[in-house]
Design a protein that fits this description.
The chain is mainly α. It is built from 6 helices and no strands. It is flat and about 60 Å long.
């Protein structure tokens, strides 16, 4: 998505110099974000395949990636809830702020719980024994 967004926004900004001047700074880093996403995805894919082949290093890589994603999801969920409450306080219909907060908590749960389970099992004795032999 970051790669697609960087191409799309890049094309839009070249069409109008005024748009390019008013573009938020984060959009300039989208190509870098795309490269980081591709690298993290490649590391996850290679370590996942190696994990199925019971390579010992792959468990550590998967655990590190799981922790990083868990922290990212928790941070994004908190960011979402904070911004939603800030944007809707005093605006919109009654209960609109609560709806966005519930969506943020559900987001954390949907993506965070499986990662938490994954970390728990990666750290467990069964996985460690299977990989060690």
């Amino acid at each position: 998505m970051a790669l697609f967004s960087s191409v799309m926004i890049g094309q839009m900004s070249h069409a109008d110099p005024e748009t390019q001047r008013n573009m938020p700074t984060i959009f300039k880093y989208f190509p870098l974000l795309a490269i980081v996403q591709i690298c993290v995805t490649s590391a996850g894919l290679v370590s996942g395949i190696s994990f199925l082949k019971l390579k010992s290093w792959s468990r550590n890589v998967l655990e590190i990636l799981s922790w990083v994603l868990l922290l990212f999801i928790a941070g994004f969920g908190i960011f979402w809830v904070f911004n939603w409450i800030s944007a809707t306080s005093g605006n919109g219909p009654q209960g609109f702020g609560i709806m966005g907060t519930v969506m943020g908590v559900i987001f954390i749960g949907i993506y965070g719980v499986p990662l938490g389970i994954m970390v728990r099992y990666l750290r467990g004795d069964k996985v460690k024994n299977a990989i060690n032999g």
